[in-house]
From TrEMBL:
Keywords: NAD, Oxidoreductase, Tricarboxylic acid cycle
Annotated protein name in UniProt: Malate dehydrogenase
Binding site for substrate: R93, R99, N132, R163
Record-linked Pfam families: Ldh_1_C, Ldh_1_N
Listed Gene3D superfamilies: Lactate dehydrogenase/glycoside hydrolase, family 4, C-terminal, NAD(P)-binding Rossmann-like Domain
Gene Ontology process terms (BP): malate metabolic process; tricarboxylic acid cycle
Reactions mediated catalytically: (S)-malate + NAD(+) = oxaloacetate + NADH + H(+)
EC number: 1.1.1.37
Molecular function terms, GO-annotated: L-malate dehydrogenase (NAD+) activity
Residues the record marks as active site: H188 (proton acceptor)
Lactate/malate dehydrogenase C-terminal domain location: 157-327
UniProt keyword Cell cycle, yes or no: no
């Protein structure tokens, strides 16, 4: 018997990440090749004409799993009965804009969307925030959706993880799928800590520590970390637009693993509500290594962090505390 269609919302649906992401979702890459879908597409009123074009193209793809498409500028319609939410739309940083101005514009967007999720989405909806500042936007969104568990709000650091994995694979000269368990700690910003010290590389029929495979601790602590931290800026410099294809792929990876789980012994990085593990501040959305089973993530425990790691974890944690304080100041103003 065929499964009932599930409703999935993508916000910022007329934007460039959504242009790749919608196709991946609608052809079954995220929820599986047997799961029919109804796609809800949210954008702002001036973008409704562009969105109409996206709806036409989705129709012209003739995708068997896509049962219908609901384009809208109304969050109430967009979040009605959704089982999964990709919150991609956000206020972009404009020239001369301070971080505070950016946070202030986004707090307003994610407050409205949190309230709409709270009232209209399924109570077990899985929410992935992609729009920046992703970690703090996820925290704000969750605050305004008290009837949905905090664990259901996550922020995307999977693009950073994929970038880190690709850097290690290129350095060791193995296919990217041979690299596992590389971690992104903290904020999806230039303070993030890409950490390969618990990673493995599959070579000659067995998993060996990534540190041994790379054989260059200085590189792992310097060029590797900086390349991953600054990769977004490097793509903007080259493309004159921000990462979109790779961001869409990462959003699909994040949600697919959240629904389907991680294999035994493997973990992925996700921005999740912090319980203070590894000395991270509590109650910020912090990227940790997580393993996933039955649709629930758990922070991987017991990894040993050295002084170098502790220092970088501290820096990114402090930035998240500052962002939270600034966001709360906007809410309470
Ligand atoms: N977490 C990550 O790894 C990661 C990676 C890449 C990009 N991003 C972020 O993702 C976001 C989207 O990037 P993009 O390249 O698709 O941008 P884009 O400007 O091409 O598209 C964003 C879309 O969001 C819409 N939008 C704005 N406010 C909205 C609202 N209140 N409700 C619904 N839609 C709204 C805009 O109209 C636009 O169509 C940006 O914030 C970007 O910084 C995050």
């Amino acid at each position: 018997m065929e499964s009932e269609p599930i409703r999935v919302v993508v916000t910022g649906a007329a934007g460039q990440i959504a242009y790749s992401l919608l196709y991946m979702i609608a052809k079954g890459d995220v929820f599986g090749s047997e799961q029919p879908l109804i796609l809800h597409l949210l954008d702002i009123p001036p973008m409704m004409g562009v969105l109409e074009g996206v709806v036409m193209e989705l129709s012209d793809c003739a995708l068997p799993l896509l049962r219908s498409v609901v384009p809208t500028d109304d969050p109430v319609v967009a979040f009605k009965d959704v089982a999964a939410a990709f919150l991609v739309g956000a206020m972009p940083r404009k020239q001369g804009m301070e971080r505070k101005d950016l946070l202030s514009a986004n707090v307003k967007i994610f407050k409205v969307q949190g309230e709409a999720l709270d009232k209209h989405a399924k109570k077990d909806v899985k929410v992935l925030v992609v729009g920046n500042p992703a970690n703090t936007n996820a925290l704000i969104c969750s605050r305004y959706a008290p009837s949905i568990p905090k664990e259901n709000f996550t922020a995307m650091t999977r693009l950073d993880q994929n970038r880190a994995q690709a850097q290690i694979a290129a350095k060791v000269n193995v296919p990217v799928a041979s690299v596992s368990n590389v971690i992104i700690w903290g904020n999806h910003s230039s303070t993030q800590f890409p950490d390969a010290s618990h990673g493995t590389v599959h070579m000659a029929g067995k998993d060996i520590p990534a540190r041994d495979a790379v054989g260059d601790d200085v590189w792992l602590r310097t060029a590797f970390v900086e390349t991953v931290q600054k990769r977004g800026a490097a793509v903007i410099n080259a493309r004159k637009m921000s990462s979109a294809m790779s961001a869409a792929k990462a959003a699909g990876d994040h949600m697919r693993d959240w629904f389907n789980g991680t294999p035994p012994g493997k973990f992925v990085s996700m921005g999740v509500i912090s319980d203070g593990s590894y000395g991270a501040p509590k109650d910020v959305v912090f990227s940790f290594p997580v393993s996933i089973k039955n649709g629930k993530w758990e922070i991987v425990q017991g990894l040993v962090t050295d002084d170098f790691a502790k220092e970088l974890l501290d820096v990114t944690g402090k930035e998240l505390l500052e962002e939270r304080a600034e966001a709360i100041a906007v809410i309470e103003a």
